[in-house]
Amino acid sequence: MTHLQAGLSPETLEKAKLELKETADTLHQDIQEVRDMIITRPDIGFLRTDDAFILRFLRARKFNHFEAFRLLAQYFEYRQQNLDMFKNFKATDPGIKQALKDGFPGVLTNLDPCGRKILVLFAANWDQSRYTFVDILRAILFSLEAMIEDPELQVNGFVLIIDWSNFTFKQASKLTPSMLRLAIEGLQDSFPARFGGIHFVNQPWYIHALYTVIRPFLKDKTRKRIFMHGNNLNSLHQLIHPEILPSEFGGMMPPYDMGTWARTLLDHEYDEEPDYCPESYTLSAKDLEKDLSPKNIKRSQSVVEPGVLKRPEKVRNEEENTQPLLSLD
Fold first, then answer.
1. Closest Cα to residue 197, out of 139, 165, 156?
2. Which end of the chain is more exposed for a tag (fewer CB within 10 A), N or C?
3. Burial of 67 (0-12, 13-18, 19+ CB in 10 A)
4. Alpha-carbon torsion 120, 179, 155, 20, what sign?
5. Residue 205, exposed/middle/buried by CB under 10 A (0-12, 13-18, 19+)?
6. Strand (E) positions, 131-215?
7. pTM (2 d.p.)
8. Are 153 and 12 in contact (CB under 8 A)?
């Protein structure tokens, strides 16, 4: 075991070897091979290239050198292309702070049996008069940056539960295709985290319609890990034990305190209330045209027009759907 693996428990060390093909004897060589590829992308500013940083990208891509480098490049490219998102990128930024205090994201104390951290989002908590969807995305990315420092989570990964209870049609109308694609690019394509499952509970029909919009942009691996539970929490409990879930998800733990994770990040600054007026984050006209081009949306036009939610003629009753969209690998 090298010093780069010092933070791993024996169980996680074995998991990294079996699942990720991580080998102590070749670890430094693996890292160097990724680092050597940096010269092939002079258009990107690689602001951090130390061993520990590159290692998290190798773990996220199971030590496939090329895929790890591509993820590393996309990580910095995403930040270069969305500079406004990463200005004042810290917990005390007014928009990030407001989102954190409303539980975007919430982070459960207990890990799941696979050692994964469980993130929870209560969608109806979004106060659109105080912060934007991009502030929520920034708060989630900032939180992941903090948690991914833990080598255990680099190997074991995360699980996400989104509760859509009381999330209104008006709130959903603010989730435009451009904003959703921005989130997909930031979380799926540009961040070195392993997501073992994304669970939707209590979702109304218009959330299923939104999923139809974004589905073409999701990788097959991501789609296989998205589960639509409706209001059938038993199917959620088959994958995540109720012993570690808060009561909102039919679990045995107390109701989730939305400020738990925010207090961890903000500490004594949690109670300070800065003045903040949310501003809409907009893509350039060129990017917007690309996002909403016929090529990108043709697979979803039959259900939802760009930026407009329409009730399908025949809506599947998600509350009766107790099966995932696709099974886990």
1. 156
2. C
3. middle
4. positive
5. middle
6. 158-163, 195-201
7. 0.84
8. no
If one counts every other C-beta atom within 10 angstroms of the C-beta of residue 116, the result is 21
Work out the average pLDDT over 268-290.
Answer: 57
Q: What is the DSSP letter of 246?
A: B
Identify whether the C-beta of residue 91 lies closer than 8 Å to the C-beta of residue 265. yes
Predicted local confidence at residue 293, as pLDDT: 44
Q: Tally the residues of the chain.
A: 329
Listed in sequence order, the residues at least 6 apart from 288 whose beta carbon sits closer than 8 Å to its beta carbon are: 178, 282
The alpha-helical segments, DSSP class H, found in 8-114 are: 10-19, 27-36, 51-60, 65-81, 94-101
Within 10 A of 6 (CB to CB), how many other CB atoms are there? 9
Q: What is the rounded distance in angstroms from the CA atom of residue 275 to the CA atom of residue 194?
A: 36
Give the span between the Cα atoms of 75 and 186, in whole angstroms. Answer: 8
Q: What is the pLDDT of residues 3-20, one digit of tens each?
A: 999 989 999 999 999 999
- 279 pLDDT band, cuts 50/70/90, is low
What sign does the dihedral 185-98-84-192 (CA atoms) show? negative
Residues 6+ apart with CB under 8 A from 314: none
Per-residue tokens: 126: 């979004």
d(CA 288, CA 142): 25
Residue 208 · residue 301 · CB < 8 Å: no
Per-residue pLDDT averaged across 222-230, rounded?
A: 94
One DSSP character per residue, 271-316 reads T-------------HHHHHHHTSHHHHTTTTTT-BTTB----SS--
